[in-house]
Specification:
The complex is a heterodimer of chains A (about 325) and B (about 525). Chain A is of the alpha+beta class and about 325 residues long. Chain A is about 65% helix and about 10% strand. In chain A, the strands form two sheets. In chain A, strands 3-4-2-5 form a four-stranded antiparallel β-sheet. Chain A has a two-stranded parallel ribbon with strand order 1-6. In chain B, a hairpin with a 7-residue loop joins β10 and β11 (about 230-235). Classes of the chains: A alpha+beta (about 325), B alpha+beta (about 525).
């Protein structure tokens, strides 16, 4: 089976203006979303308590609300269905710091008589831990991006690094915007998904860049946009196929992975789509705009090769005893 | 046939993968297995904070106790001994004793003595405060570990986190009752103090306010069994649980469980001295700030043993004895984070992610075969080998498989075929250009290599950062992703290349592009 048999390069760069316009609109509306609606920090980052309860039959949510109302501990608690009608999650903004007394026991007592239930999970995160995790989360995002920047600059050229990081920021922004839009609880697993998107999207970008690097060195073409078009077209089948297999897998995770992994897989779904798009339509045009010049790049490479050769020669002379 | 080192390495990798992943897959008794994270097998995870400031306060109090004991023992007259802020203050009545007193303080490490006339202020040096705080955390870890060991749980983890935090993980917890018992055992301060009842003022305890009691150097403590009863005792304890050597459950004459404790020689001496001098007075046995009993001292008690009676069940008495025996917590602990997962939820999570893993696997598997034919099958062999390797390596390193880790494996399935997609596409490209199949395979690999390496290394960078900054479950995710990437380099690049090398003669003879790479002839 063949989907994309290379015949001639598609003119991707010719359409880059439209693509960039779409990207800018998406990114800006994501920021608008984040500024107005904001992120819904889950207990990992905001601190708080989650109690997950499973009933034998359908959970009597109204009755539960009624019974919990009498205890001031549950003031402002939200009770929502979780995955199935049997399962319910009680979320509270407060957290207890007593080791001996437990909200799970309190909840069991408070819900007594509401049916046959089991308390399956109790998560308590204190405010101090929450803020520490938040700091660590931001730190890890920044560090990951920095590490990638340095590596790509070292392996390619600084413009490639800037372009790939711009694509990453683009992908992360849009993913966060989508998370804000659907009001997902941002917990550690969502952070993990965002970092995975970082890795994934970069994967895609690097493969395209590698082709561009190869094209720059090997083809006779001197017009960068043509080289880019050719490279993207040649990697298009790979980009699409890998994105499809990853997408399939993440989709099965989303559909069958269970409620707890839901936020993770949703974020990944968005990320895979956006990451694939950005490696084609965002990273490469930026390369173009930063004035990457084929001639000077080749000159630099030739220079580098010359230096290597000279070093080699010197070493040979030195070892041969001739100085 | 040429020497094919690739297929040999690949075969070794497969044998290695299968051998070491079988114990985890079949759940045999022997061999290293993947440990399931608490989110998958159920259990209790807690991050505890230590109130180190309170360790300093109790250190000051015990300093005051030793001053009192020393002066009593040597008939040195002092007045208004009390604890103010973070120091012990008193005044010396007879200046002849200055010398022996200063010698006494010289023997105690880490104290600063400030003398103004006859007024003494004794406090801890800065280093001693830091040391005390650190010690409080170390000792709390030790104590909690001892208590959990005696509780009889499978593989509890008690570890220090950062400056003043303690991580406790109890994978074996199955029921709410067990969890509650474990939490109570951990949190129990088990601070035993023997305190003198203020005989002169005890009668007025019910009308006395706390500040008033404090002005006499006393504290008001509640009774452990009768909530309405209060006791007025001297603030500075005679001795505390630090001098305890043993605590066991015994039975009194009514066959009710009591806890008998034994003191070390220093404690026994102090106890003997005190009881000898206070015959006819009350001695309060205080545990965790509650008075358990306040018997009248009938005679000097030598030998250094005593009893705590209360309305315990046998199990409660046992837990209390464990707590006392394993030492008191120098500083109280508090809950910073707790995650408890019931075993049924863990089982559900495993089932759900297995379903996603199988579903994703079947999809990718089928797709690769349909799209690439033989090349797809070869890629799939690498994919299966990759899965075995991940499980084997995780089992050997004792890595923990968490729910995000499961997601990581599922994701690896999607991404692991990437290398083979890149390689196959390169090969197809060369074939379109009219290169022979043998040459296309060779060049396809070398052309694809740089891109695959760069792409994998950048993903690795992201997951290393994730590992360094992540906690618990996220670390598990980073580990599986990293192992997955490394394993896929071995299987997807080296392994598949080895298979092609092995099939080389057939590839060379065949002109069937559709069979090998799923493309029609050019």
């Amino acid at each position: 089976m063949e989907f994309f048999r290379y015949t001639r390069p598609f003119n991707f760069m010719g359409r880059s203006k439209i693509a960039i316009a779409i990207s800018i609109i998406l990114v800006l509306s994501s920021y608008a979303m984040l500024a107005t609606k904001g992120l819904n920090y889950g207990i990992d980052f905001a601190g708080g308590t989650i109690v997950q309860v499973k009933y034998k039959g359908a959970a009597p949510i109204d009755k539960m609300r009624e019974q919990l109302k009498s205890n001031p501990l549950y003031d402002g608690a939200s009770i929502t269905e979780f995955g199935s009608p049997q399962e319910v999650v009680i979320r509270m903004k407060t957290s207890s710091s007593s080791v001996g007394q437990d909200i799970g026991d309190v909840t069991r007592a408070a819900l007594k008589g509401s049916g046959d239930f089991e308390i399956r999970r109790v998560d308590i995160v204190g405010p101090k831990v929450g803020s520490e995790l938040r700091e660590k989360g931001v730190m890890s995002l920044v560090l990951a991006i920095l590490g990638i920047l340095v590596y790509v600059a070292f392996r390619f050229e600084w413009r490639f690094a800037v372009a790939s990081v711009a694509a990453l920021v683009h992908d992360v922004s849009i993913s966060l915007g989508a998370i804000s839009l659907v009001g997902l609880d941002v917990n550690l697993d969502v952070l993990a998904a965002v970092l995975t998107i970082l890795g994934y999207s970069l994967n895609d970008t690097i493969i395209v860049f590698d082709r561009i690097r190869e094209g720059v060195v090997e083809t006779k073409e001197l017009e960068l946009s043509e080289v880019i078009n050719d490279s993207i077209t040649r990697t298009l089948s790979r980009t699409t196929l890998t994105s499809l297999t990853t997408f399939f897998v993440v989709l099965t995770l989303f559909l069958f992975g269970g409620e707890i992994i839901n936020a993770f897989s949703f974020t990944m779904l968005v990320g895979v789509v956006v990451g694939t798009y950005s490696s084609i339509f965002v990273a490469s045009p930026i390369l173009l705009w930063f004035g990457f010049d084929i001639k000077s790049y080749r000159a630099k490479l030739a220079e580098k090769e010359k230096r290597e050769l000279e070093k080699e020669k010197m070493r040979a002379q030195y070892e041969g005893g001739v100085v | 046939m040429k020497f094919n080192y690739r297929i040999i390495i690949f075969a070794v990798a497969i044998i290695f993968g299968i051998t070491f992943s079988l114990p985890s897959i079949l759940q045999t008794d022997k061999g290293a297995k993947i440990t399931l994270g608490l989110d998958l097998q159920g259990g209790l995870h807690m991050l505890l904070g230590v109130k180190t400031d309170e360790a300093v306060v109790s250190r000051i109090k015990s300093l005051a106790s030793s001053v009192k004991h020393f002066t009593d023992h040597n008939d040195i007259l002092i007045d208004s001994l009390s604890v103010k802020e973070s120091s012990v203050v008193f005044s010396l009545l007879d200046s002849d004793d200055t010398k022996s007193l200063s010698e006494f303080f010289k023997k105690i490490k880490g104290v600063k003595v400030d003398v103004k006339g006859e007024n003494y202020t004794v406090s801890l040096t800065q280093e001693e405060i830091v040391k005390t705080k650190q010690q409080a955390v170390t000792q709390a870890i030790e104590t909690i570990r001892n208590r959990l060991d005696q509780f009889g749980l499978a593989e509890p983890i008690v570890a220090r986190q950062g400056e003043d935090k303690i991580l406790v993980e109890l994978p074996g917890i199955k029921t709410q009752e067990e969890e509650q018992r474990a939490r109570e055992l951990i949190s129990r301060a088990a601070k035993l103090e023997l305190m003198a009842v203020d005989e002169d003022r005890a009668a007025r305890v019910n009308t006395m306010s706390r500040p008033e009691a404090s002005s006499f150097g006393d504290v008001i403590l509640p009774d452990a069994q009768h909530k309405e009863v209060k006791h007025l005792v001297k603030e500075i304890p005679i001795l505390d649980g630090g001098m305890l050597t043993d605590a066991r459950v015994g039975f009194d004459k009514n066959n009710r469980p009591v806890i008998s404790f034994t003191l070390n020689s220093e404690g026994a001496q102090i106890f003997g001295d005190f009881t000898g001098k206070n015959v006819g007075n009350h001695l309060a046995i205080v545990l965790d700030g509650k008075v358990y009993s306040a018997p009248v001292i009938n005679e000097r008690i030598g030998g250094g043993s005593g009893q705590i009676s209360g309305n315990y069940s046998v199990a409660e008495a046992q837990d209390l004895a464990i707590a006392l025996r394993s030492g008191a917590l120098l500083a109280p602990i508090y809950l910073m984070e707790k995650r408890s997962v019931g075993p049924s939820l863990g089982a559900d999570s495993i089932r759900d992610s297995m379903m996603a893993l199988t579903g994703g696997f079947v999809l990718v598997f089928g797709f690769m075969i349909v799209y690439y034919r033989m090349a797809g099958i070869i890629a799939n062999i690498a994919l299966v080998a990759n899965l075995f390797l991940i499980i084997a390596i995780m089992a050997l390193f004792g890595a923990t498989l968490t729910l995000p880790g499961m997601a990581g494996i599922v994701l690896t399935v999607g991404m692991a075929v990437d290398s083979n997609v890149i390689i196959s596409e390169r090969i197809r490209e060369l074939l379109y250009n009219g290169v022979s199949m043998k040459k296309a395979i060779k060049e396809g690999y070398s052309n694809a290599m740089r891109a695959i390496l760069d792409a994998n290394i950048t993903t690795l960078i992201a997951s290393v950062v994730l590992y360094a900054y992540g906690t618990g479950a996220i670390k598990g995710f980073a580990i599986t992703i990293s192992i997955g990437i490394l394993a896929s380099m071995l299987t997807a690049i080296l392994g598949t290349h080895g298979i092609y090398d092995m099939l080389e003669s057939r590839v060379e003879k065949s002109k069937n592009y559709l069979f090998w790479f799923g493309i029609k002839e050019k």
